Amino acid sequence: MTEVSGHGAVAPLIEARGIVVAYGALRVLDGVGLVVREGEAVGVVGPNGAGKTTLLAALSGSLRLSAGTVRVRGRDVGRLDAAGRCALGVVRTHQVPRPFGGMTVLENVLTAAMHGGGLRGAAAGERSLEAIALCGMRAVANRRAESLGLLDRKRLELTRALATDPALLLLDEIGGGLTDGEAAELVGTIRTIRARGITIVWIEHIVHVLVQVAERLVCMDGGRIIADGPPDAVLSDAVVIDAYLGAGVHERA
Ligand SMILES: Nc1ncnc2c1ncn2[C@@H]1O[C@H](COP(=O)(O)OP(=O)(O)OP(=O)(O)O)[C@@H](O)[C@H]1O
Ligand SMILES: [Mg+2]
Predict the structure, then answer these.
(1) 131-187 residue pLDDT tens
(2) Burial state string for 93-107 with b = 16 or more CB within 10 A and e = fewer than 16
(3) What is the CA radius of gyration of the chain?
(4) Cβ of 7 less than 6 Å from ligand 1
(5) Are 94 and 157 in contact (CB under 8 A)?
(6) 29 lines ligand 1 (CB under 6 A)
(7) What is the pTM of this model?
(8) pLDDT digits (tens, 9 = 90+) for 70-104
(9) Distance 122 CA to ligand 2 centre (A)
(10) 50 lines ligand 1 (CB under 6 A)
């Protein structure tokens, strides 16, 4: 389901074509094409090792492509690193959180607002406090990041990304291991973020949580996109069931 933009159409927010990422003979991404338009919320699923995290890294500029192109609003960003793409509004979170451990939550978020978001002084503080409130981090704002549990570290990843004022937020498994209540809270947060006009690409294994936000699902396997479309269609696709969802879904369906 590749989209093709016609003459005069608005360029997609991000457009990856023929992306290959190889480590020696291993093609971790093997010709991936993905088009995401402004305002979309796209969920990404697939088995462990499918290449989901590598795809986010390729889009956000944190690794070098072996082949292919990434365009942001029509502009080839192949020469831009993660900081350069952040300046264009493309920001990722990390599957394994990477806070500055010795800094407080607020200091971490301020750093993102200043270095990623280009703000100074009161504006950086305001943006940071807003992101902290939106992500439910007020109660831990003055705690050192290294003292946080994994869930709060993941939430801090989201808060830091948000503080850069992204146009496209690339989320990598921020919801694993949540209780039902925490998952509902996270869905509320992501919906609010989306309502602010931020486009979302969200990798998550908890599909029932993902589909509460995503109106489009992409399934990866073996470094390729094997399905891309409305969640119902993707989740009932025999190829997706075989590669990812397994026999249990046949039984439940
Ligand atoms: N730097 C690297 N060098 C060699 N192989 C790598 C490197 N980074 C990732 N890989 C391999 O690429 C494949 C895809 O990894 P990736 O982390 O993108 O998968 P994923 O879909 O995010 O998996 P998960 O659901 O477990 O997070 C894996 O087989 C992984 O071992
Ligand atoms: Mg991953």
Answers:
(1) 999 999 999 999 999 999 988 999 999 999 999 999 999 999 998 888 888 899 999
(2) bbbebebeeeebbbb
(3) 18
(4) no
(5) yes
(6) no
(7) 0.92
(8) 999 999 999 999 999 999 999 999 988 889 999 99
(9) 36
(10) yes
